[in-house]
Amino acid sequence: MAAAANERTRARMERRQAALAARSHMSPSGPAPDHFRVATWNVMGSPTRATVRTTGWRSRHGILAGDMNVAPTDSDIFHPDAFVGLTHVTVPEREAWAHLLATGLVDVDAARWGAHERRFTWWNHGLNYSRNLGMRIDMIAADPELARRVVTTWIDHVERGAERPSDHAALLADFDLAPHGQ
Fold this sequence. Notes:
single chain, 182 residues, alpha+beta, two-stranded antiparallel sheet, 5 helices, 21% strand
């Protein structure tokens, strides 16, 4: 009896994995808006958009997740005045993110909590974390059908308590992948 249940679970998991394409992404950033790595965001955005369009995501679910190094709106930074003339908030960077979403992807964290919710995933080292002086630059984007299945998203702050923490906290999402009616 247990072996049959395990086989059904294994088969169900294989079907779900075959129905999901995932891509990890890290957009380059630089010390100033005119730095060559910042200009690369627009250059990289075009191949990434092409990949999204051509990977078969229309016939199965797709997720693009990672460090996008762009704060899409002023609500995604602790104070807009602090970022005037800096990276992560330039018009070309924000346009590149918007063009990526225009391929049909949905920013699931913004969709779940609202575009103006202040949910940061990055803080400079030092007191900025304890004061919540951060940015939302880590994203999870999914196809519209999968985005409708988001149960919740959350930011994992555990790593920030480590002796030598990352300047990022992981953005995670739960999706309801059960077939309709189950």
